[in-house]
């Protein structure tokens, strides 16, 4: 079995561009990635209100690997997050802290990647931080910054209205690949949330194209193939 390890120089600023790679194109090779650290976020969501506190932590299986919590943001590229290597506490987060966060070892191995969006708007869309498995149920919540935080909301996928919900939340049952896309919500009188990409994973190898922050064109030399579990 061929084992592929992601190294630090391959990490660049991420956009939500996912290319499916059929197994038939792998010519009999199997690619696996061993992640010995996992990045967790508290509160557990992609979108954060500006001014809120956020804690990011590298949960590591091997502390001797010397894991560092690293980030690429709109104001800083490839910097350590926090004073403690595997822990980052942000007491008051700003829009400029939006970006890609991950754990990286001295040898260049990386953890899962979390893309945080810090919003100065009056509302956010709460969605799962981790990838969603096919067949799971997924709940999206449209939340305002000030009370009442839960109001009737309209939910959109790829710019098209899905449905309106009087309770401010929507559940997608038994998700499939067709549910993958860019989601946002809207509450009358409060505006709309930022958009979040929801990825639905199965047994297919996925190619994630790392791109320059806030740019739509990918540099194909920066592509990395990895397995999503």
Automatic annotation (TrEMBL):
It comes from the Eukaryota. One of its GO terms (biological process) is cell surface receptor signaling pathway. The keyword Signal applies. Keywords: Disulfide bond, Signal. GO terms for cellular component: external side of plasma membrane. Residues 37-119, 120-201 form the Ig-like domain. InterPro entries: Ig-like_dom, Ig-like_dom_sf, Ig-like_fold, Ig_Fc_receptor, Ig_sub, Ig_sub2. PANTHER family: FC RECEPTOR-LIKE PROTEIN 4 (PTHR11481:SF64), IMMUNOGLOBULIN FC RECEPTOR (PTHR11481). This is Ig-like domain-containing protein.
């Amino acid at each position: 079995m061929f084992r592929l390890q992601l190294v630090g120089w391959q990490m660049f600023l991420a956009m939500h561009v996912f290319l499916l790679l059929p197994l038939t194109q792998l010519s009999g090779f199997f690619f696996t990635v061993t992640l010995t650290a996992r990045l967790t976020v508290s509160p557990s969501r992609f979108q954060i209100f500006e001014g809120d506190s956020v804690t990011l932590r590298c949960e590591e299986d091997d502390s001797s690997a010397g894991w560092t919590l690293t980030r690429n943001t709109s104001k800083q590229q490839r910097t350590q997050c926090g004073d403690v290597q595997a822990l980052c506490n942000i007491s008051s987060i700003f829009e400029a802290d939006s970006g890609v966060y991950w754990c990286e070892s001295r040898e260049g191995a990386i953890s899962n990647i979390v893309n945080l969006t810090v919003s100065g708007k009056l509302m956010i869309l709460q969605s799962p931080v981790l990838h969603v498995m096919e067949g799971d149920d997924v709940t999206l919540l449209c939340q305002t910054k000030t009370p009442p935080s839960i109001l009737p909301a309209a939910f959109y996928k790829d710019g098209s209205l899905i449905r309106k919900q009087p309770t401010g939340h929507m559940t997608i049952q038994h998700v499939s690949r067709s549910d993958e896309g860019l989601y946002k919500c809207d509450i009358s009188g409060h505006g709309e949330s930022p958009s979040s990409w929801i990825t639905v994973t199965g047994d297919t190898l996925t190619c994630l194209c790392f791109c320059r922050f806030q740019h739509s064109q990918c540099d194909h030399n920066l592509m990395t193939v990895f397995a999503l579990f």
